[in-house]
Amino acid sequence: MAKILGIIGGGQLGMMITEAAKKMPEHISKIIVLDPTENCPASQVGAEQIVADFKDKNAIIDLANKSDIITYEIESGDSTVLKSVEKNADVNPSPETLRIIQDKFLQKSFLKENNIPVPEFIKIDAMEDLVNGLQDFGYPALLKARRDAYDGRGNFKINSEKDIEKAFDYFKGQKLLLEKFMQFKMEVSVIASRNTKGQIKTYPLVENIHEENILRETIAPARVSQEVTKKAEHIAEKTMQVLRGAGIFGIEMFVTQDDDVVINEIAPRVHNSGHHTLQSSKTSQFEQHLRAILGLDLGDTELIHPTIMYNILGDVSFEGKYSPVNISDENVFLKMYGKEISKPLRKLGHFNLVAKQGETIDQLLKKLETLKEKVIV
Ligand code: ATP
Ligand code: MG
Ligand code: MG
Description:
Layout: E1 3-8, H1 12-22, E2 28-35, H2 41-44, E3 48-51, H3 57-66, E4 69-72, H4 79-84, E5 90-91, H5 95-101, H6 104-113, E6 121-124, H7 127-137, E7 141-145, E8 155-158, H8 164-170, E9 176-180, E10 186-194, E11 200-202, E12 206-211, E13 214-220, H9 226-242, E14 247-255, E15 261-267, H10 277-280, H11 285-294, E16 307-313, E17 320-321, E18 332-336, E19 341-342, E20 347-354, H12 361-374
Parallel strand pairs: 1-2, 1-4, 2-3, 4-5
Antiparallel strand pairs: 6-9, 7-8, 7-9, 10-11, 10-12, 10-14, 12-13, 13-16, 14-15, 16-20, 17-19, 18-20
Helix pairs in contact: 1-11
């Protein structure tokens, strides 16, 4: 029988999950999202909405009572509350996995214990730990909030002794970790999935270009050697073997100057670097996520067309209503998220630039330069 799907978070990820769910009426009869912003992106495409804070316990219980199956587009949900509602609805990925992943220190410790490579890191509880850590790692180093960070907003780069106090004050009261700064060659990611029956499938390795800590472009496939691809895919597989729970996991990695691969972080949800799959693959990551949590066979993950995904971000010096974006090009697939207000570097939409028969990534990159100008908001 078709199920009622509850999603915590109704932003662009919840929106694209909703759109995928609506194409599976035989499996999903209704979608309800929990989101604090009225008329959130997911509600604009047909999800019913409970307007409440993500951490509102009663609202989560309400969502669980109304749903057969719960998932989330954000990793800041309360894992204890989610665990407690498992008697009312299936929760995927599992609250236990969420608990580990949503704390960057627990996550990195978990990976390290399982012999999966990560940058050097230590827990910071006091200024003394920070001073000692910096002595060990040297400069620059990254001080990170352990929880609730996204788009790099929980990172502070410490370039020299001068920054120590500023960095520590910036995070007043938050739990922290310090990481060695990686002079990486490239950032890459694997979108991996596991269904409730244990079947695992991963999408091909992609390359991610960040600016100011925020994802700007994803190039599928990544421009790396076969050896690096193998290493990254091996790390992704190993990670999936130790992490429990069904759904999509976005595994972000760094390729070092020596062509080693280490994990930066894992997202227990559909991931921005998987948006290219909307056009580049037979199964989008959003459909795959639903297939995974519903216990359906996972779909094909092969990359059919090389594709570049470009994020449309709010101008750094503007907040307010923005002008509509239009591109007409048969190889460009524009997706705006229905957000009324632009804020500095806010994710407002993206487009996928798909290669025509025989077109190379270099040719796509050239074309991208002219397209970028059309999406300045
Ligand atoms: P997301 O939006 O991906 O959840 P986030 O706020 O959780 O982001 P991170 O992924 O930890 O933040 O970091 C954001 C970016 O900062 C990374 O993609 C990378 O470009 C850079 N970065 C993070 N950690 C390191 C590191 N140890 N060394 C060098 N650069 C780093
Ligand atoms: Mg993150
Ligand atoms: Mg990240």
